Amino acid sequence: MRIILLGTGPFAVPSLRTLEASEHKVLMAVSRPPRGRKPMPAPVQVAAESLGIPDWQPETVNSDEARARLRELRADLLVVCDYGEILKSETLAIARLGGINLHGSLLPKYRGAAPVQWAVLNGDSETGNTVIQMTPGLDAGPALGVERVAIDPDETAGELEVRLAELGAALVLRVVDELATGTESPVEQDKSQATKAPRLAKEHGEIDWSRSAVEIKNQVRALQPWPRAFTDWHRSADAALRLIVHRVALCDETFSESTPGNVVSTTGQLVVTTGDGFLSLLEVQPAGKRVMRAEEFLRGNPMQVGDELL
Known about the structure:
With 310 residues, the protein is of the alpha/beta class. It has two domains: 2-193, Rossmann fold, CATH 3.40.50; 202-309, Formyl transferase, C-terminal domain (Methionyl-tRNA Fmet Formyltransferase, Chain A, domain 2, Roll). Helices cover 25% and strands 25% of the residues. It has eight helices and 14 strands. It has helices spanning 13-20, 43-51, 64-71, 89-92, 115-121, 157-181, 213-222, 294-300; strands spanning 2-7, 25-30, 55-56, 77-81, 99-103, 126-133, 143-150, 229-234, 241-251, 263-265, 271-273, 278-286, 292-293, 308-309. The strands form two sheets. Strands 3-2-1-4-5-6-7 form a seven-stranded mixed sheet. Strands 8, 9, 10, 11, 12, 13 and 14 form a seven-stranded antiparallel sheet that branches. A hairpin with a 6-residue loop joins strand 8 (229-234) and strand 9. The chain is elongated, with a radius of gyration of 23 Å. The termini are far apart. Residues 182-204 are annotated as: Disordered. Keywords: Protein biosynthesis, Transferase.
């Protein structure tokens, strides 16, 4: 099979490497152009160059000019993963068999840009990968391959995404092999079960201590490595200090009842009351400082029982 891979982020890199090592031919890797104040090459661009695969970063792959260039490659299939732009039907049509997409959820659940994060945020115990035949609808095409994966209760979204990317690469190759031999078995999605997984924003990181300890733990896990969960320590003598919360644990000890967000222990640990249960903050990062364990933070910051996190 002659393949064009469209991917930008790290989730697509294992699929690129796996396809390049297979009997199929990766003609080109297409990624989104670098953005931001300090633009850096996309992970897929870096991986393609290391593998000797031609790479290209068009402003949009849906332009007539981009389609004309890709059509010249005479690809059999587009493989799309973590690309960052929805492909129009005219773009999918440049390849003989259209396009397939690797998505990090059990579709139709969590259609959208952040399926892994929302699975962790909602406290799911299971997720997976789905490879679909692409259609103009967002993550709506028939499933060509599905793989279920258990979520560890302490696993962050970043850690889970790395696992799914590696497992998904093997699933992509299996589907490509089936398409090459005409043995694929598409299964239509049940649209009535569809849920959305929109991209997260920094505002999602603000901790609401009136929620349960379990819900806040899931929030901390889901927002790693970005945009990260945060709270403000309101100190009696100084201005409030922003704390980025990196790692937490449910606390089985019993403390006196207090208002959600109140600190109830600073003796070797940092325990905070929630709307249901207590949460131990294991690793925090004060504004402008590095990440540190709670006991180290407490040695340099005289937090008191009764202090508020809001």
